Amino acid sequence: MRREAPQKFSDYGPLFFPAGMLIVFFVVPFATMIAVSFFRRDPAGFYSPDFVFDNYARFLSLFFGKVLGFSLFLAVMVAICCVVLAVPFTYLLSRAKRKTQVLWLVALLSILSLSEVIIGFAWSTLFSRTAGITNLLVMLGIMNEAVALNPSFGAVLTAMVYQALPYTVLVLYPALVRLDPTLTEAARTLGASPMKSFFTVVVPALRNTIVATLIMVFIFALGSYLLPQILGRPQHWTLSVLITDQAIYQSNMPFAAAMAVFLVLVTLGLVALTVYAGRKGEAA
Amino acid sequence: MSGLTLQNIVKQFGTFTAVRNVELTVPHGTFVCLLGPSGCGKTTLMRMVAGLDLPTSGAIRLDGKDITNVPTHKRDLGMVFQSLALFPHLTVGENIAYSLRIRGIGKEAQKKRVDELLAMIHLAGYADRPVAKLSGGQRQRVAIARALAISPKLFLLDEPLSALDAKLREAMQVELRQLQQRLGITTIVVTHDQREAMTMADTVVVMNGGEIRQAAPPVEIYRRPADTFVADFIGMTNLIDFSADGTGASVLGASIPGLAIPAGLESGIISVRPEDVHLTAPGNAPISGTVTFVRDLGGTIETFVEAAGKQVVAVSMPNARPDVAVGQTVGLKLNPADCVVLKS
């Protein structure tokens, strides 16, 4: 299809509405946040306009460094777990009967309708000593006595993977449906077992989709701040938790803004690095 | 016995029977074409030979061994798909080496074999190119080389040339046949193009409605079709009713002496190829008719003649044809040896 470049100013008409929304609800608040991050905190009131680097300087400490590191580590773990689970699952789903596919997709979409709070408390019940899944294992004779599985890193990771998995599957699904099924058949006639053909044909052919999905889940997980609080110990709190704490409970808006800006920059940097590495790998 | 044997193969999808009671023997080193209209079960039959579909009942034997339930990847075959199914993330060389890599063959041996195959398909030096940069004909060759990399026991091709333009297709048919003869590999090709089947095959298997209608060498299929479907599907033909009374047969209102009709058959259909319908001056032949249309193709001339209410087509060389025009009356001569009596 040939697309003509817009000629007159009015040709850009369809863009006015989304552009306006983006400016009002994204560009302006983001610019405000950047500005506030340079303001001086006023202990008596809120903050006063200024141009200081104190907020950024305070952030450069071992404590915040560790929190940032943990936040990134958690997000990477969630992304990897989701993709490792979702790629084989979605592959099998895309080869299943139409009815089975619809059933699974509806179930996955219904998980998206759950709020983060419900997911958090549901898992905290499931991981509890009194009513949790360990009681089932005791009944089955696998464990001797019921134990509490939260708060722990595993509990945070499980709930976050649970929350992000539907997105992962929905992003991978179209690419896997479009994948030519004769590719795996060809691999099988050439001597690859179904397992081998999956790893030597399906996964490499979908490399770009998988990288894009990893990035999406990583960014999604980076913003999480409820689940680490409900299911984790303080050392499992992410930078988002600290930002909320500073902004709402400590009334230190400038510092919270500085942390948020820093988080955005680090995220952008990591994504750029991944894309760059992907390009390089493709050229080689 | 060496070669491929299909015993009473049946394949059902739900209530639909795609392949019914197929019996076929493909001796080692022969080239077989499965030919038929779309939906006749030829692709399903090939997929069962490849192990991509399992037969509902029946047995498949290769070199005397029952492989009916052997999974595809353990059958040691090479297959070229209609879509070619080249791996888009691999280069030409990596595509061809795939089956060698999967079998854990060393890098050096892989490279040697890839170079050998590239030379065979006239693409030497293309090993490092991405597949997407090749033309249709080149991709076709790469798919063939990839399927032949391990020197398979069976070489299967599913409509391999259908994506190519007419000229290239004809050239590839000849090339494929020569390659098969050089390698002496048992080959099965699925096609709906009868020209392709006639060019390449030792044995043409004509299928319709999930059944084999006739399996024979190309010339025999053409000269001695088993039934009206085969006669009509392969090339142009005239299907003409006849009636018999025990002493002789009557065709288009005239008797054809010497036409052998099986005893007890009172009526039926004969098939006469257009090139076997000879035009003569009226009165010189028992059958006469009126010319309704002339298609002059330069090399050959097709004359449509209406005789006894039935249209008959005659194909003649320009220099062996009486000069007749539309509306004129001509005589038609049929040689009894050229008429095939068919089951209708």
Automatic annotation (TrEMBL), chain A:
Pfam families in the cross-refs: BPD_transp_1
Residues covered by the ABC transmembrane type-1 domain: 68-274
Superkingdom as given in the UniProt entry: Bacteria
Chief site of localization: membrane
Annotated membrane topology: Multi-pass membrane protein
CDD domains registered for this protein in UniProt: TM_PBP2
Keywords: Cell membrane, Membrane, Transmembrane, Transmembrane helix, Transport
Similarity section: Belongs to the binding-protein-dependent transport system permease family. CysTW subfamily.
Name used for this protein in its record: ABC transporter permease
Organism: Shinella yambaruensis
Automatic annotation (TrEMBL), chain B:
Location of the ABC transporter domain: 4-234
Single GO term (MF): ATP binding
SMART domains referenced in this protein's UniProt entry, alphabetically: AAA
Superkingdom, natural source: Bacteria
Gene3D superfamilies: 2.40.50.100, P-loop containing nucleotide triphosphate hydrolases
PROSITE patterns: ABC_TRANSPORTER_1 (PS00211), ABC_TRANSPORTER_2 (PS50893)
Name by which UniProt lists this protein: Spermidine/putrescine ABC transporter ATP-binding protein
